[in-house]
Amino acid sequence: MPSLRHAVLNSLTLGVAPAAAQATALLAVTTAALALASGSARAETVCPDTLAVRQTAEVPSGWQVTMSEQPPRLASVTLFDGQPANRASLKFTKRQSSGGELRLTWMLPETPRSIYLQCGYERTAALISAPLPPGTTRCDVVFDTRTSYPSGASVIKRMVCK
Prior knowledge:
Structural class: mainly beta
Radius of gyration: 17 Å
Shape: globular
Strand content: 35-45%
Distance between the termini: 13 Å
Number of strands: 9
Number of helices: 1
Helix content: 10-25%
Strand order of the largest sheet: 4-5-8-9
Order of helices and strands: EHEEEEEEEE
Number of domains: 1
């Protein structure tokens, strides 16, 4: 069966219309779920590699602000049993390390609530999240342990939930 690979959002701008951004994320996940239900494709969900964020700064008198031109890159992945606001995060079920990579795998439990994927980005407090399509059974995140962000977090090489 061909694979339908979609991003929760290819690029999300926060600050202007977060409700519209959330609706777009839900639409992307719903589209994948419908494709799965129709049998035409197998749904995969991934966090966007980068996130466009509008930031403002209250600059003290005599100072000026400059903003980085590089969008924040994916730095964290968290899975929740239910909405992230409930703070019921799921612990990975398997951890493998080899050749400069660390792979974390979540085997997702059956639950009456939706499993949510939350994506975090470096250099911003912005987090995006969306429910995974029904039938999603696992998520894998692969980190490059030889490279890190200034915060010290390892770089995420790839991630997918299917």
